[in-house]
Specification:
- There is one protein chain.
- It is built from 24 helices and ten strands.
- By secondary structure, it is α/β, with parallel strands linked by helices.
- A five-stranded parallel beta sheet has the order 2-3-4-1-5, with helices on one face. It has a five-stranded mixed beta sheet with strand order 6-10-9-8-7.
Length: 532
């Protein structure tokens, strides 16, 4: 029967254990000098060799012909342990045997001497899963076991163990295995399995494994079906880190404030069965990569990606400010936490997208810092001469009359032909007259443009000359109405209801600015410049 790589190539001697010399050397010296403890605690992240070292230690203390602290793997005791036929070595999964009764049974078994081996060894894996009662039942036996009993406890979460357990064991901390060590082991396994593993493929697997050799061997096992070479491109396809361009596209929408584009992309991903929790996790990792690229001179060692993706990350990071990256990370992490609590995943993700596209919606410290940074960049660009104030605006600056309370702006019109230039400001010669048929227009939009109709709920409309001026409290309205398809839908609905063709404008009032917004005044001052 086929045996997976991480089982087939499990170390059988301390000399074969990868990346843990501080553990193996200490255990070998203790075995050679005969200074054995009655209880050991192996702790560390997954796939670092805790269970493998526990099995090697159980063989070494019972081996008939040990060699420099290593088991010979040839005597009947070693072969019996490897095959699982030796009953004196007991492996216990604490996740499924975590009750007081299970520990009581274990205590009763310790009264019996070994059948064939010198020591009866108990390997308790994931020991942190034991209940409080089970820990208490184990204390006395763990402190003073019979002379022929050795306990080896293994856990990935040592902080969950009571101090009374920790004080009774010799503790060994297993470190994450370095990528270079994992890559060398992968090449050794690939050579013996007749696989064509390239250097870049081995290095990519080693970085994806994140210090866990077992994970690396599992990935190599998955790639073993390749007809030719197992290179970085093949590995990236096999583990699913290729074709992540939607992350770059979505983060670009966040940077440019393109709310409709972000919502549309999220909707497409959702319709294609993309899990929103996974999308948030990928976005967190993506912005983390941008943060690393922005702050580290050589980010390749800290980021798991292909060379092409790293180039794209560097280009996008140049366009981002570090404050915006940190703010985006904060918003997405909060959204991820809300999704984990079982709320509507899609709605939470869409809300996060709107917040990231419009930082002015939030009054958090992170949002304010992001907006301040944006204003500073704009003011610095004006001061340095990168962006110049138009001469016409500066000449008329001294002749300006006090600004009226209401500013009338017309959104960018869709181009009817190459020579037509849309007007941006509605004429001031007429007064604003309420458009009495606006409710019927909104009802018509519900049939033709539902997203825009939802945005316009609670809005008002006024007639001024040939313009329909729309006033809405929704901050995303301006972005929607500047899209050609949305503005066309409004004009078509107005024409159908009123029978008259109007041009569109946006009615803004200074009173609409929130009184408690500390940046409102500064934003208004900056926006008064006509930049060219």
């Amino acid at each position: 029967m086929y045996q997976v790589f991480y089982r087939k190539w499990r170390p059988k001697a301390f000399s074969e254990v990868v990346g843990q010399p501080h553990v193996t050397a200490t255990l070998q010296n203790a075995l050679q000098s005969g200074r054995l403890s009655h209880a050991y605690l192996f702790t560390g992240s997954r796939g670092t060799g805790k269970t493998s070292c526990a099995k090697i230690l159980s063989k070494a203390v019972n081996c008939l012909n040990p060699v420099n602290g290593n088991p010979c793997n040839e005597c009947e005791i070693c072969r019996g342990i490897d095959s699982g036929s030796l009953t004196d070595i007991i492996e216990i999964d604490a996740a499924s045997n975590n009750g007081v009764d299970n520990i009581r049974d274990l205590r009763e078994e310790t009264n019996f001497t070994p059948v064939r081996a010198k020591y009866r060894v108990y390997i308790i894996d994931e020991v942190h899963m034991l209940s409080t009662g089970a820990f208490n039942a184990l204390l006395k036996t763990l402190e003073e076991p019979p002379s022929y009993v050795i306990f080896i406890l293994a856990t990935t979460e040592v902080h969950k163990l009571p101090q009374t357990i920790l004080s009774r064991c010799q503790r060994f901390d297993f470190k994450r295995i370095m990528p270079d060590d994992i890559a060398q082991r992968l090449k050794f396994v690939a050579e013996n399995e007749n696989l064509q593993l390239t250097d870049d493929g081995a290095n990519l697997i080693a970085r994806i494994a994140d210090g866990a050799l077992r994970d690396a061997l599992s990935i190599l096992d998955r790639c073993a079906g390749a007809d030719g070479k197992i290179d970085a491109a093949y590995v990236s396809e096999a583990v699913g880190i290729a074709n992540r361009s939607y992350l770059f596209e979505l983060s670009e929408y966040f940077r440019t404030g393109n709310t409709p584009g972000a919502l549309e992309l999220i909707n497409n991903l959702h319709n294609n069965s993309c899990d929103m929790e996974r999308l948030c996790s990928e976005l967190i990792n993506h912005f983390r990569n941008l943060m690393i690229v922005k702050t580290v001179k050589d980010p390749a060692a800290l980021i798991i990606c292909t060379a092409d993706e790293l180039d794209r990350l560097k280009k996008q990071a140049e366009l981002y400010r570090l404050e915006d990256i940190l703010y985006s990370l904060s918003v997405i992490e909060d959204t991820y936490s809300k999704i984990k609590r079982g709320l509507n995943q899609k709605i939470e993700t869409e809300m996060a997208a709107v917040e990231l596209c419009s930082p002015a919606l939030l009054k958090s410290n992170e949002a304010l810092l992001s907006r301040i940074s944006s204003l500073e960049a704009k003011i610095n660009a004006i001061s340095s001469g990168d962006i110049k104030i138009s001469p016409a605006n500066t000449e008329n600056k001294s002749k300006e009359t006090p600004a009226p309370a209401v500013k009338n702006e017309a959104p960018e019109q869709e181009k009817q032909n190459a020579t037509e230039k849309p007007e941006q400001t509605a004429p001031d010669r007429d007064e604003n007259i309420p458009f009495m048929q606006w409710t019927e227009v909104l009802d018509e939009l519900k049939q033709t443009d539902m997203p825009l109709a939802a945005i316009l709920q609670g809005s008002q409309a006024f007639v001024r000359g040939e313009f329909i001026l729309i006033k809405s409290q929704n901050s995303t309205f301006e972005q929607f109405i500047r899209v050609g398809s949305h503005s066309s839908a409004v004009k078509a609905a107005v024409l159908k209801i009123s029978g008259k063709k109007y041009r569109l404008g946006i009615l803004k009032s200074e009173e609409d600015q929130p009184a408690n917004d500390p940046l409102a005044g500064l934003i208004n001052k900056v926006n008064k410049f006509n930049l060219s």
